[in-house]
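Q: Now give one record:
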Amino acid sequence: MRLSRYFLPILRETPKEAEIVSHRLALRAGLIRQESAGIYAWLPFGLRVLNKICAVIREEQNRSGAIELLMPTIQSADLWRESGRYDAYGKEMLRITDRHEREMLFGPTNEEMITEIFRGYVRSYKSLPLNLYHLQWKFRDEIRPRFGTMRSREFLMKDAYSFDIDQAAARHAYNRMFVAYLRTFERMGLKSIPMRADTGPIGGDLSHEFIILASTGESAVFCHKDYLDFAVPPADTNFDSVDELAGIVSKWTSLYAATEEMHDAAAFAQVPAASQVSARGIEVGHIFYFGTKYSEPMRAVVAGPDGVERPVHMGSYGIGPTRLVPAIIEASHDEAGIIWPDAIAPFNAAILNLKPGDSATDTVCGTLEQALEARGLSALVDDTDERPGGKFATADLIGLPWQIIVGPKGLAEGKVELKRRATGERVLMSPEDAVERIAS
């Protein structure tokens, strides 16, 4: 992709409305644009990041055995009255009326709708276990949207819903998502810590928030420092093994870790002082087991092995991709700009043409772009007339993992300069070797 033909509105000045670094950098690097309070347009560069994040989420959900579908954003108020949540949810729910005076709502979550879908088709325990997920835009009318897409009113959510015959099977479904979440966030370059959490309006009696530590986190969190060194389960984890998953979850819940709402000062005091971590945290995922909270009032029942009908046990599991973008920036940036982890970078490399219009530099930049694309990689070629200093600043701001600097001086010796954005390491090498280094 040639930058001269791309839509990347870079801001050189820091926007006054941006309070935290991720909001500042997301605006400056042309990821998002605010359209109204808590509502943002995702510009091409930001959308590429969002799509990369969604791809990782899908891969790990599918690996765990979850199945993707897509539910509508507008829901009937009658469904929520069945569950008893319509009047209880609060002003965060955007209630609307259509032209036929039917009461509707812009869904803040989908427990009711997925339960209605399930009960319409599933009658027997033989169809279980089942976990259905989707990636869908939602709306919650936050009283105080802030920090860009960290806490916005309209947001993209991956929400999954599990259905099982009993509590034991539902706990295994919960453990599947627990492990899938550890893997998902690790692949995005984040060290997440599962912490006991309040169930809030979702309900239930078992819940964990997946927290990354950040000085700009929304709330205080408390944990044992050993969590920072725990190894994340590998890709070949057997998601069908009850014992294997239970062992992983047991390890990851064996030490103290709790959000501010669930914090037990006396229990935390039992952690050795040298191992106590008291910090700010950002929630990047939340999982719940809530048993028959929705299946009982909504009559989502299946016939068991004995032929007796019983309400299914359910859980829900959320990840906010639009929230993950600022969380990743908070965790991975420096004074010059964003540092994207390889797995979710919008492009793999920036190719900086220091003398556009020169036949040699133009040819090499084109060859590099084609060679990277042939390896399944993507590049953003800065072929603009901006001075080299400006190109370097833009490249650092947008934070692509690699920069290939192509100038007449280096090419006279058959070399380009390759820079690793995360470390700042620079090395001169042939264009072919630069491609091999990035692809390796």
User: Anything to note?
Assistant: DSSP finds twelve helices and 23 strands in the chain. The first strand starts at residue 32 and ends at 36. The longest helix spans residues 44-64. The CA atoms of residues 177 and 317 lie 7 Å apart.
